[in-house]
Amino acid sequence: MFEMGFEYQVRSIANHVRPDRQTLLFSATFRKRIERLARDILTDPVRIIQGDVGEANNQTRSGKKGLVGIHDISNMQF
After folding, report:
1. pTM confidence score
2. Cα distance between residue 6 and residue 18, in whole Å
3. From residue 1, how far is each of 10, 11, 43 by CA, in Å?
4. Where does the pLDDT of residue 25 fall: very low under 50, low under 70, confident under 90, or very high at 90 and above?
5. Could you give the CA distance from residue 5 to residue 23 in angstroms, rounded to a whole number?
6. How far is CA 62 from CA 48, 52, 53, in A?
7. What are the domain boundaries of the chain?
8. Opening angle at CA 68, ends 46 and 28, nearest 5
């Protein structure tokens, strides 16, 4: 959506919903613009990484799969 010019709209929606919302953010390629958005709109985020950080673009092309790590799920409420 960012490549199509929707960053402003995504940020606007995030700023107009309740602050206690649950937000899920998925991206096959976590580029710097997406990381900035995540830092700005997510509270206590949990990051699930498939492969090595920074390798996302290569993995999506090669089809390589496998879960590498889950960062801090202690704050998750079920």
Report:
1. 0.55
2. 21
3. 9, 12, 22
4. confident
5. 21
6. 19, 14, 16
7. 7-71
8. 65
